[in-house]
Amino acid sequence: MSARHLHDYWVAFRTIVTKEVLRFARIWVQTILPPVITTALYFIIFGGLIGERIGDMDGFRYMDFIVPGLIMLAVITNSYSNVVSSFFGSKFQRHIEEMLVSPIPNSVIILGFVFGGVARGLSVGVAVLLVSLFFSPLSIHNIGVMLVVVLLTSILFALAGLINGVFARTFDDIAIVPTFVLTPLTYLGGVFYSVSLLPEFWQGVSMLNPILYMVDGFRYGSLGSSDFPIMVSFAVIVAFIAVLYTAALILLNKGIGIRS
Q: What is the tens place of the pLDDT at every residue in 228-244?
């Protein structure tokens, strides 16, 4: 690959990412503010009102315990929703075809959409983190682990959003996966509790939920407490990213859901 090709691919990648970032930044009242308000209500109701009656969780005040999980919840849902809505919008308005017929590799198109989703996920995550400071002091056990886990998680769910966008045929299809798959997995992913509290059978079932490892890994970086070794969490997240990226690339190369 020549330097000229690398430069052209970089320009294409930067252009897609810029478009994606401007798309959600222009309407920040609709894209960033609502999840921040929703999470603040979680802090007030679950952390403040109910948490006072629960007491400690894994040796931490309940409010402090749920903060890492709620930050990850915001990152997951926003990374996902940004890409699925943007990619389906590109199909609906038929300007995805301009990118597909251009000399841009499909891998660059995928990375452009994914990093747009990552930008929104991290923006909302930072906003939620700032709001959490009104309820809980900032705890950092390992800042490197926190940054890597949150980055990998947002990449994974941005890829999942792109695949959902490929298969979606109507606006209603966009809501099916978040409603019936993403939300249950998120709430059963250890955001509000430690998996060690579950009966043995349900602990085994929970281990099939990838979100559990993401929340647990981020909680380790914040509080220094986790249910699984951090390398296990990294391995699970990276494995899912590899599978979803390969699936997304195959779908675009074959034109599934795009070519009619």
A: 899 999 999 999 999 99
pLDDT at site 72:
93
| pLDDT for res 260 | 62
Q: How far is CA 68 from CA 60, 149, 219, in A?
A: 12, 11, 5
What average pLDDT score do residues 182-189 get? Answer: 84
- 170: which DSSP letter? S
Cα–Cα distance measured from residue 83 to residue 159, given in angstroms and rounded to the nearest whole number: 8
**Residue 47 CB contacts under 8 Å (≥ 6 apart), including other chains:** 62, 63, 66, 67, 135, 136
Tokens of 188: 């059963």
Element (H, E) at 60: strand 60-61
Question: For residue 94, how many C-alpha atoms fall within 13 Å in the half-sphere facing its CB?
Answer: 2
User: How open is the CA angle 147-150-152, to the nearest 5 degrees?
Assistant: 105
Q: What pTM does this model have?
A: 0.91
Amino acid at 180: F
DSSP symbol at 197: G
Reduced to 3 states (helix: H, G, I; strand: E, B; else coil), residue 57 is: strand
Rg (CA), the chain: 19
Residue 257, pLDDT score = 76
- The alpha helices in 93-105, defined as continuous H runs, are 96-101
Q: d(Cα 196, Cα 258) in Å, to the nearest integer?
A: 44
